[in-house]
Structure formats: C-alpha cells, structure tokens
Amino acid sequence: MLPWQLLQQAGGIAGVERLSSGEQPGFRLPDGTVWTFACKNLGGICQLSAADTTQIQAVTDQLKAKNTELEALNLRLRKSGEHVDELTRSRERLETKARIHSELGQALLSTRRYLLDETGTQAAPLELWQRNIAILRREAVLKAEEQPLEMLKRIAVSMGIAIEISGEFPKNETVQNLVVQAAAEALKPFIAEGAAAGCEACKQLKELDHYLVKRSQWIIGGDGASYDIGYGGLDHVIASGEDINIIVLDTEVYSNTGGQASKSTPLGAIAKFAASGKRIRKKDLGLIATTYGYVYVAQIAMGASYDQCLKAIREAEAYPGPSLVIAYAPCINHGIKRGMGKAQAEQAAAVECGYWHLWRYNPALEEEGKNPFTLDSKEPQWEKFQEFLQGEVRYAALAKQFPTEAHELFAAAEGMAKKRYASYQRMAKLDWSKEEVAE
After folding, report:
1. Is 75 among the domain residues?
2. pTM, whole model, 2 decimals?
3. How many CB atoms within 10 Å of residue 130?
4. Which residues span the domain enclosing 313?
5. Residue 162 and residue 342: Cα distance in Å, rounded?
6. pLDDT band at 48, cuts 50/70/90?
7. Nearest alpha-carbon partner for 280 in 294, 295, 269
8. How far apart are CA 359 and CA 192, in angstroms?
9. Residues 249, 327 contacting (CB under 8 angstroms)
10. CA distance 240 to 6
C-alpha cells in the first residue's frame, strides 16, 4: 500500500498527526517534520507531490499561541474595564466627602470661636466666611453696607491696619474690582504675619485668604461643543448672567471625532459630511453673543497679534459678567501644506488676508458712552485670500476633484468674508456718545 493511502486510512499511522484536511492535507511525522501532500488524478493514475512545510507550520503554531495569549489578555482587560467607571466614581465620592468634611470642620471652628468671643473681634472673619459661602452657593446678594471694599476695610481694622483711598472712588465696576483685588492682595502678608504671631482672626483669614482675590476660572471647549451640538448649553450659560469665562478653540471641524463638518466649518471647505465642499457660510457665534448686550465677546488669533490676544483675555477676566473668547485654532484636519509647526504663521496669514477677523465687544464701555465694539483687524489684503485657501488641503483638494465647483465656492467664500468684515466696520463706526430718546 502506498504511503499516501496509509495516511488517508481512518486510523492513520501511529505517531503521525493529521494537522489539516482537504485537497492538500498536512501531517506531522514522528521525526517532527511537517509535510503537505497533494494527489492529482491523471487518467486513473495518482500523481503524488509532497512539500516540507515544517518552518511554515512552526510559525503558524507560534501565531496560534500568541492569539491564545491575546484572547486571555483581552478577556482580563474587558473585566478590568467593567470596574473602571465604578472605581472612578468611588474615588470622586471619597474626595468630595473629604472636602466637605474639611470645609464643615473649618466652618464649625469659626462659628465656635465667634460664639465664645465676647469682644466681637471675630465679627469680620465670620462675615467674610458667610459671604464666601453665599457666593459659592450662588446666593450672594450684597447690600449697600456689605460691599467688598468696605468689608476689607473692616477686616483690616480688626488687625490694626487702615486702608485709605485718596481721591474719588472709580465708578466703573471693572476698575472697582481691580482696586478691591489690589487691596486684598496687599493684606495677605499682614494676615500671614498675624497668624504666625497667634492672632485668632488672622488664623481664620489665613485659611480663607484664597477667597480674597478673585480666582481665574475658564471653561474651554471646541467649536463642535460651542457652535453646534453643545450650543444650547453655551447659550444657557452666557444667558445666566453669571461671572464666568469661556474660551472656544475654533478648529472649524469636529477635531476629536474625525473631522466632521460643523456649523463653524467655512463655505467651500472639505470635511466629513461635506466631501464636495460645504455649501453654507460659517456661523458667526461671536456676533450672536453680542446681541445679549451684557456678554463680553472677542475673536482672537495669537499668531496674528499677541497684544490683542492678551488684551482680550485680560478684559474678559476683569469683566464682571459672562465672557466668550473665540480663538482661531489651526488643526491637523486642515491639511496645512507647510506643516502644523507653522500654525502660528497660519493664524497670521488668516488675519492678513481677511479669512479671520480680530475684534472685541466690551459692554463696560457702553457705561462710559463709548462704542463697546472695537475692530482690531487692519484692512485685509484681499488679493491673498485665494492663495491662503490653496495653502490648505481642505480647500486645495476640492480644486483638484471639482475644479468648476471649487472656483465658484472659493469666490463665494471670499465674498462672504468681505461682507462679514464690512458688517464689523459698520459696528465699529457707530456713535454711542449720543443718547436717543424715543418719542
């Protein structure tokens, strides 16, 4: 009987392991070698061919072993992942409980010292504590005699320090806040010295001195979370009138989810869901926010003007109400031909050609009879607009795929940019010094 027929027998040959079946079965022989056989029928004659596949089989066995290890590891990771959320929530709960217990303990100690003190010197620290708790709970309604500056003066007097302000106190609320912050900052060294010397009032103030000067707190989001899917939340926050700062990093696409088009995507740009170029103009989020009248709004591009960028952020921080700063942020999805390392230069080019505009809207200026809108951009060099578009793949690719449509869309995009700049110019020229009385 031929070896081929022996291998095909039901029982096989002792010591021979069948590894595969089919037209080209494979067998592992007793000496450890692996052979693959094939039988071709030639008119009743079997043409038998054999190939030594020992090395191939060795690699296959290694891959199977690795796959088994990976499956086991994947199973362990899935089980661990099921507990991550619960472990995170547990940690957050523990941290919150610890913070609450700490704050309650400080509050109880302050109250106890106040009740045991017969001299009344603890009144100022307790007053400060009450006011800050009210602010944290968003329930602070200051009376005329409870203004921050007056409170600081009383606190200073309780420590033997007198605060004197020469001249007329400024009427502008932003300037008032700066004066109060400066006075509070000046008190910090005296509070620290008093606490070290054993002054009970100073010890309490030392624990709360981080509330004396306003903290800088910002909400940071992208254009998807601000222009588009999260616009309702943004609108709700700025409509609250609270003193809160928001900065929007405008990449003009959904950057974190793969580059999908958003309401911030400009006319003519390629993005997911806009493969043939977006046909609708970009939403002017900043201009919409100015219609509230009490929201500080600014458009910035750090690479175009460091001074304007810093000035806008400082004004937003100082403004006693909601503020919205929109920053142009070049993104990898733009396909900048000169590379992301030139992002700052790309911002400068965007402003220079009129693609992006710099401006600020400060409602505090209205109280002084001044125009709250300031256009910081110079007259754009419109002849560079089309060149700027061709420097980014999101536009250049459209010109290659659909040249006729691209020409029309790019011309429309430049036209829209000119209209937007013209609207900003009109706002900047308005005269706010004259009050019109309706008859």
Report:
1. no
2. 0.57
3. 15
4. 218-428
5. 54
6. confident
7. 269
8. 42
9. yes
10. 87
